[in-house]
Amino acid sequence: MRIKTRVALPLVQIAVAITLKINSRLRPLSAENPSWTAPDRQFCDALNAPAALVRIFLLRLSDAWLPASYQAEFLLETIVYFVLVGLLWYIVSIEIGGKGQSVLTPKTRARRMADGLVIFFGLMLGILGLLVRGQFGVVDTYSNLVAIPYYIWALVIVSFYGHDLWVSFRAPGPSAV
Q1: Which residues, including other chains, have CB under 8 Å from residue 44's CB and lie 6 or more apart?
Q2: CA-wise closest residue to 52 among 60, 63, 61, 44
Q3: Are the CB atoms for 136 and 121 separated by under 8 Å?
Q4: Taking the model in full, what pTM does it have?
Q5: CA–CA dist 128, 26 (Å, integer)
Q6: How far apart are CA 40 and CA 17, in angstroms?
Q7: Could you read off the pLDDT of 98-129 as tens digits, one per residue?
Q8: Cα separation values, 86 from 12, 14, 48, 115, 138, Å
């Protein structure tokens, strides 16, 4: 059963992301209506907020190394993004099986550092939620609704891995380090 969930959940989420991205690309583009403002794209990024944050970071790096490269941007917006979505939901499916504790961070040699980095990532998602909330220039009901999933992701990640970090300090032995 767990193996099916670990495969099915990422595949379903990739299919949802592809559908939303294709629907977003079918809209006519204009200066007044850029693609990133489309509700389907906003929902896709919010649903997959951790993958969207990594994609944003990779796009910034790409712009620094390859300015105005349409091919690099297209690659990061499609193939890399869908791989990140699959990886995100695969990790979620693994962590769901941990019964309230992380399955992945105790397997690292530096569990506390891994937990701390993931907590920092969760905080970055909260900051991204604030940026998303203000991206339209005015904070209204729509921008607040678009930002809610980012805050939920941030809250879940920080609380889950914060609890795991707290447990690591209480657990005796070398695996807690």
Answers
A1: 16, 17, 20, 21, 24
A2: 44
A3: no
A4: 0.84
A5: 26
A6: 9
A7: 777 788 888 888 889 999 999 999 999 999 99
A8: 9, 6, 10, 21, 33
- State the Cα–Cα distance between residues 141 and 146, nearest whole angstrom: 9
Closest CA to 102 of 166, 174, 177, 173: 166
Two structure tokens written together for 10: 């990422």
Give me the count of residues in the chain: 177
Residue 52 backbone phi and psi in degrees, to 5: -65, -40
Q: Is 134 helix (H, G, I), strand (E, B) or coil?
A: coil
CA–CA distance from 74 to each of 38, 55, 58, 77, 132 (Å)?
17, 11, 12, 5, 21
Sole residue written with tokens 């991206």? 135
> Using CA atoms, how far apart are residues 91 and 85, in angstroms rounded to an integer?
10
Comparing CA positions, the residue from 138, 142, 131, 109 lying closest to residue 49 is 131
d(CA 90, CA 171): 27
Checking if the pLDDT of 47 tops 90, the result is yes
